[in-house]
Amino acid sequence: MMSSTGSFVMRLSEVARDVEACLEALLSDEARGGEMARPARLLSAMRHAALGGGKRLRPFLTIETARLFAREGEGPLRAGAAIELLHCYSLVHDDLPSMDDDDLRRGQPTVHRAFDEATAILAGDALQALAFEVLADPATDPDAAVRAELVLGLARASGLGGMVGGQQLDLAAEGRYGEAVLAEEDIRRLQMMKTGALLTFSVEAGAILGRADAAARNALRTYGRALGAAFQVADDILDREASAEALGKRTGKDLEKGKATLVDHLGMEGAKRECRRLVAEAQDALASFGAKAEVLRDAVRFVAEREV
């Protein structure tokens, strides 16, 4: 790890605690305005999915990007929490028997194992709906145009042309609909949609909240895309080199299913070189922000060099 890792991890942990508290409040027992009731079993499943685990990298990126533009406080925290709710919904559905059929997530039973499959589907649905509710709430930003842009951006990042579309491509890559032979560009597109789109939007959300100009937003979009790609390459490497105990989830899934990754196309050393190249690309994109963006530079190094 780099010399700045200690302070970075401390900051990441501070933000994670704030996000956890925000999620706790959003997933409290008390029904909110417009709600008739919060069914106890469904709420428990949602809390199981969203609380007590994960590094909260996506909200961290939103919060720290907003800080570049002196935008801090409840708004970026709520926006980050909304993105985390969306991310948690995706994990619940990815783990289902019809998808990846996983028993373990973040070191604990997946939602469909801890509860049941129908409850897991509903919990994912409700987490997704809550994410958009949080972004659309004036408490996130007083400017309706900003809130609308956040909602639009999250919908695009998570839907047909983003995360959900990427999951469909991922299923096809497993050969579910016939033999699948993926070229390197196919793998990169799949990964950019399934994983990278939401990570990129996490950065863009901070820029939206910060009222960044077009040049700054373009630079941050480049940063976010490179970070998202580095995250997935690092994930592919960990899937081959780390243990399930260390990761808190099953490893070797892609290899079991015969699904190609960049590790297969580039080799392990080639994949590690590609990860380093993406780190450099992400950091170069932040040049115009100077020292203010050091925490974002640390973030992409952390993503590439993490061991869990």
From TrEMBL:
Protein name listed in UniProt: Probable farnesyl diphosphate synthase
Listed GO MF terms: metal ion binding; prenyltransferase activity
Keyword Magnesium (UniProt): yes
Cofactors, names only: Mg(2+)
InterPro entries, alphabetized: Isoprenoid_synthase_dom_sf, Polyprenyl_synt, Polyprenyl_synt_CS, Prenyl_diphosphate_synthase
Stored NCBIfam families: FPPsyn
UniProt family annotation: Belongs to the FPP/GGPP synthase family.
GO CC, any one term: cytoplasm
Gene Ontology process terms (BP): terpenoid biosynthetic process
Species of provenance: Microvirga thermotolerans
Domain of life of the organism encoding this protein: Bacteria
